[in-house]
Amino acid sequence: MLPTDHITLDTLTLSWLPSQMEAAMLRLDKLDPEISGNKWFKLKYNLEAAKEQGKKHILTFGGAYSNHIAATAAACQLAGLTCTGVIRGERPPVYGHTLQQAMDKGMLLEFISREDYRNSRQQYNAAPDTYVIPEGGHNAAGARGCEEILSLFPTHHFTHVLCATGTGTTLAGLINSAAPHQTILGIPVLKGAAYLEEEVRALLHPGKPHQWQLLHDFHGGGYAKVKPELIDFINTFYQETGIPTDIIYTGKLIKAFHELIHQGYFPDKSKILLIHTGGLQGNLSLPPGVLTL
Ligand SMILES: *Cc1c(COP(=O)(O)O)cnc(C)c1O
Q1: Which of 67, 159, 231, 250 maximizes the CB count within 10 A of its CB?
Q2: Is 49 helix (H, G, I), strand (E, B) or coil?
Q3: Catalytic one of 66, 113, 120, 285
């Protein structure tokens, strides 16, 4: 188990925030440098289930830059479990930092073609002593861990909660644990992710009224597409708040937040909570000096 006492709830002072609104950021990025942000919450009950079922080995899936792969490798080492990462695509001649870090943490890496990956992700014949975690930790145990995020601090007074969305697991956990007066907004970082509605709904507790929505216009060109205006926004946000964000997820979240404010999306007196889901290790794939964090 990882202590959560490094996490903070930071009030945001932003020149562009209307004076009758409040905004704060829940800094899951501060949890641990390697087991970043929301990934720990998604892994927690999966690793616990693996141990309860007497499994010795974890197998999971991801791309060569996956925060989930990096986090799983580190969390398994901490939990005393061995692990395999099934990586989409050919083995690169030189490992990027994500794969290097995963390997340093003892993860076995298995590279498979994109086509095989699509198939095996659905159905993988793992050995009996192996516990399989789906790509991105997208399962009920993953969402259950994310149900604990909003109770790390008193968050009842917030009217809106925003988070960056990949698989929708974190969003589902937030929705399941939100108060009835709160609206939960997911910002998908993938283009054309209409399927996400269903994926999120599949993880929701039935019989509870939920107010939530996916806002699909803020992917900034698609997954891992990094435009200069995103880089500029991340740098400016850091200058203003001292909070570093990443190019794949949380940078797009804060940029979406800025645009929503600009559009007048939020009613007067809104109190908005942004979830910093971590992912800062992903910035290491940029050439040095591009981000001034
Ligand atoms: C993986 C990740 C997400 C996406 O979380 P989902 O539960 O898959 O939607 C968001 N932010 C960061 C930093 C991530 O690494």
Answers
A1: 250
A2: helix
A3: 66
